[in-house]
Structures are given as C-alpha cells and as structure tokens.
Amino acid sequence: MSEKETQATDAAASSGEIKLNGLYAFKAGMATVYNDQGEAVPVTVLRYEPWVVSQIKTTESDGYSALQLACGPKKAKNSTDAEKGHFSKAGFENGVKFVKELRQEIPGDAKLGSRVSINSLQKGDVVKITGRSKGHGFAGSVKRWSFAGGPASHGSKFHRKPGSSGNRTWPGRVMPGKKFPGHYGDETITVKNVVVVDVVPQEGVLMVKGPVPGARNSLVRLVKEV
Questions:
Q1: Among 3.30.70.240, 2.60.120.10, 2.60.200.30, 2.40.30.10, what is the CATH number of 3-134+186-224?
Q2: Which of 42, 68, 84, 173 would give a disulfide with 55, using CB separation of 3.0 to 4.6 Å?
C-alpha cells in the first residue's frame, strides 16, 4: 500500500468512516483530463454524496452477507412510520431517498450509522460499473437492432422495415427471440474493466475512464473487479 493510500485509510478510520469494496455515485457528465504523459483521457465525472450503513445483513439472519446503504434524507411528510423506525437506527430523522446494498464480507469496523468513505476506491483501481441506460421509447428494428434496411433508391418500397419474420407451414410460428421493433433502452447495463482515473475527496468527485451508462444525475454502482 502506498503512503497516500495509507494516509487515506488512517483518515477514514479516525473520522468513523469505513472502506468497502465499492460505492454508489451520481453521474455528473463527461470531461477530458491529461495524464502524466500529456495524453488526453476522456473521463466520466461522478458525484459522490455521503452514504450511511442502515442495515447489516449476515448469512445467519438473511442468508447472505451484505451492507444496506442509505443516502439523502426525505421530508417528514414523504416518509412512512416504517421508514422512520428503520432508518432512525442509522441516525436519520425521517426516511431516505436512496436505499441500496453492496454484497460483500462485513468489515470489522462496520456498524449502523457508519459513513462510507469515498476513499473506498483509489486512483488506478479497476472496477465494474452498473447503471440504467437511457430510455428511447418505441423504436424500429433499424434503430433498435442496427438492421441494415433495404435499398434506399427510388421505388424499392423497402427502406427501414424489419423484413420477413415467420416460417412456412412448419413450424408455422415466429421463433422466440426474433428481433422486432419495440421498447429501446432503459436496461441495466454493466461495463467491466473501467479504470478509476482520479479521486478527489475534498470535492466529492470520482473520475473514471470512458463512458458510463445512464443519463446525468442517474445513480451508478462501482464495484472493484476481483
């Protein structure tokens, strides 16, 4: 472990924060930074907001090991009594806007109300990022599945249609999995082997190389590659 990582670990421990195998952040947009060789690197900027441990799940009680994390307090009028009772153990007065969990071994210093340190990830870490892709509504097969379409010349009458879809007398039906027009996007996408370019704890910012699925302000999960 480098001196910088050691200092970050000590600072997190002294402030009551814990380090996990990943964290959640909000997509802010894209930018360009320059590495030590002077090369331009396209990065996605992620905004980190404080996450708090709201429940500790163990194999004995829940069947698997995980930490439930909460972020963003709700107003009292938007919170149920059940939410207030559950999240009060983690230090919240009312309910919360975002509740997620990370499946991993429970750290020894984890307890209800512990804050997750942004230094859970360090510069150079390789992570997999999961987010919800942008929804594009109903789309044709050319846009949705990148079909080539028909000739574009005058009179072809076959430009952006899906083409034939069925069979003859046997089996006399459309086979499952046939690509048709339909709802495009709005899917859970995971991008693997993404490099963390930089982490700026003072500003609550992480930068990862390349694109990240989802729209601005959407929530994404970052987990270290094993």
A1: 2.40.30.10
A2: 68
